[in-house]
């Protein structure tokens, strides 16, 4: 099965008073590059997240965002600043005595004092939250990989369609290739006929010239190799797996053969076909860049 390197996955898990949300998105990259953003309390669990993702993915630049919320009493602690409260209360009573006011101070009078009562989070339960986080990461990975697989299948079908066109172009070049030498012979004979007028033409010399030309413009080997590369392309896509790098190298080889054919052919029609062939190879190469 072929997978793309682009995709998106999301999974939210809530258990009791805790909630974990994992989102991940990916784009193409030569290697596996993970960027994991965790809230501070979960930072000790980053290695576990990284190992979980690496077990499933081989290539791509993947952004992973994790958020964590907890209203569990086990992770919350109410802190009261007794010193601040006592000082504030004494200050109020001093004002009362100073101005002869009735002492009707109630608890509500202290509620608006800044930093008198603070809510602090205790250390989280690494085992409980770690288990939740693993489930959420695996859930996000499942949807992420499903999207990558769907896109990978679409890429596969598109490249297979393009490979048919590559084969047709290669066949057209192969069909045209023998005609190049024949046309050269005809042009050479016509040119010599004009130059020598009624003088006899040395057929042996013409044959030698044609042989040299045929050797220089021969592209049989390039055509054979290009056909083999196209067949390999189809076989690799059919077998599937992590094949992005292999396909990328194959496209480089195909482009090299096309360039050689264009430089050796010495024929306008073949040159036009080679330009079209290279354009199609580039289209396939761009698609291959997205395959894992």
Question: Which key terms come to mind for this protein?
Answer:
292 residues, alpha+beta, Ribosomal Protein S5, domain 2, Four Helix Bundle (Hemerythrin (Met), subunit A), 3 domains, 4-stranded mixed beta sheet, two-stranded antiparallel sheet, 7 helices, 60% helix, rod-shaped
Task: Describe the overall structure.
The protein is of the alpha+beta class and 292 residues long. The protein folds into three domains: 7-72 and 126-149, Ribosomal Protein S5, domain 2, CATH 3.30.230; 82-115, no CATH class; 151-288, Four Helix Bundle (Hemerythrin (Met), subunit A), CATH 1.20.120. Helix content is 60%, strand content 16%. The chain has seven helices and six strands, in the order βββαββαβααααα. The chain has helices at residues 46-54, 82-99, 126-196, 203-217, 220-239, 244-264, 268-288; strands at residues 7-15, 18-27, 32-37, 60-70, 76-80, 117-121. The strands form two sheets. The protein has a four-stranded mixed β-sheet with strand order 1-2-4-3. Helix 1 packs across helix 3, helix 3 packs antiparallel against helix 4 and helix 5 packs antiparallel against helix 6. The longest helix has 71 residues, at 126-196. The radius of gyration is 37 Å and the shape is rod-shaped. The model has no long low-confidence stretch (mean pLDDT 84).
Task: Offer a concise description of the structure.
The chain is α+β, with helices and mostly antiparallel strands and 292 residues long. 60% of the residues lie in helices and 16% in strands.
